[in-house]
Predict the structure of WG repeat-containing protein.
Amino acid sequence: MATEEQQNQDQTKETKDGKFDMNKQVPKKAAIMVIAGVVLLAVLITALVLWVVVGRQGVSDQTAEPPQLAMELPGNEMSSAAEAPTLPEQPNVPEEHQPSEAPNDEASANAPVRTELLPVSIAGEWGFINLMGDMVITPRFDAVSLFSEGLAAVQLQGKTGYVNEFGELVIPLAFEEGLAFQEGLAAVSLDRRWGFVDQRGQMVIEPRFDDVYYFSQGMAPARQGDRWGYINPRGDWVVEPEFSRAFPFERGIAQVQWNGRDGYINMAGDWIWDPRIHQ
């Protein structure tokens, strides 16, 4: 009996000792869990701060002001550093060239072929970058046009010539003004009269017109006195100058004006819509 009682007492002691040891370990586990929670919270806060900083930096980069670009579209006028380029309702078209209402809203299938070089201005001088933003032609010109058919009009000290995509002056600075190349010809002015040169700089149509526009579908609007007509690449009249205004052909149709009233003609010069009849 004594032996059995002694065994029961030893088991009770072991049980009490076991409970005592387990209870003693509880505070240690709780402390470890608190520390782990604090570390996790610190990691989350750090990640949140980094996300906010990077997000703000990305927004700042996206809203950074892009480089100033010269814009030159079918009107072919060159943009200079003295006047910041904008995109008007009729892009860079001289007032006397602007139609009162465009024939259609689609881009012309005969618009000049553009080279992917963009004009930029640094300290008032113009050059060109590629689409990656790399400087290709060092800024050194007073004004430039966009590239068209591999050449761009440039102006320096009041004279106009043409450069290629490497910045080489392939047509000398010999003209007062110059428009973009289209169908292998570019309009240039000498003594305030307009003619056309080819891509070698040879005068193909002597300067004898009071105003011109670019070639489209083998014809170019030209003005003689106060009347507009259409010439071919040899400089011959194919539609006699009888209009008060005329614009390049698109898909075989051109908008013209007769004493301020709008009409349309085909490439033979016949009326599609005669404003003299429909008033």
Confidence is low (pLDDT under 50) at residues 12-23, 56-76, 79-109. The first strand starts at residue 79 and ends at 80. Residues 2-62 form the longest helix (61 residues).
